[in-house]
Amino acid sequence: MLRVKNINVAYGSVKVLWDVSFTIGEGEIITIIGPNGAGKTTIVKSIMGLLKPTTGTIEYMGRQIHDTPTHMIVKDGIALVPEGRELFSKMSVMENLLMGAYTSDEKEKTLKWVFSLFPRLEERKKQLAGTLSGGEQQMVAIARSLMSRPKLLILDEPSLGLAPLMVKKVFEIINILNNENVTILLVEQNVHHALEISNRGYVLETGRITLEDSSDKLLDNNHVKEAYLGM
Ligand code: ATP
What we know:
Elements: E1 2-11, E2 14-24, E3 29-33, H1 40-47, E4 55-60, E5 63-64, H2 70-75, E6 78-81, H3 93-99, H4 107-117, H5 119-123, H6 134-146, E7 152-156, H7 164-179, E8 183-187, H8 191-197, E9 200-205, E10 208-214, H9 215-219, H10 222-228
Parallel strand pairs: 3-8, 3-9, 6-7, 7-8
Antiparallel strand pairs: 1-2, 1-4, 4-5, 9-10
The structure holds adenosine-5'-triphosphate (ATP).
Adenosine-5'-triphosphate (ATP) binds next to strand 2 and helix 1.
């Protein structure tokens, strides 16, 4: 479904990604783990067309997208739940959701689907997003991204700063979405949870993929255990 091949990305003269390659098959849950500053968000922004690789290619459903504008990438079926959520805090839950639906011809139907996944948001649809709890805000961020009916959903550290029960809920939602045919790319610091629900994973360290394997094997890998699972 998505094939990232040898991308190099820089901010000005500072190179951040070095020949990064990975694939995501339709229906998979793929996790990218790595320490702070490794370049995980840079990968995500490159896929969304927010950053342009200096070299390398990004192919989605058989088409090159590394030159495609972000709104077209969203229309083609990729959506992002950004790190830090980036909600419109002075707008209501409903207004936030509708902002995510700008590419959709079926707003009402999609809203129904989204509210069936997040009944709490329907109860709170008139509340200003900035007054919601952190967990509820993360739900709005995920729900907003679903309003474009993505085939591939990218979540950048969705469990960051959430209490354990809410973390559990976020991972449950990811599983439910995957069962509804949404392919998932997950960037996570919560390595144990992320690898438990994913099929395969990649380790990114200082801008390079240093390890790739099935999630089971990564959970059993000594380097992953020491560096990311504190074992
Ligand atoms: P974290 O887990 O802390 O979110 P990350 O793996 O997502 O980190 P990135 O946010 O991709 O890492 O950052 C990779 C490197 O690029 C870091 O050294 C960061 O300082 C640098 N960087 C990120 N954004 C910019 C920018 N706009 N301008 C210059 N350098 C940047």
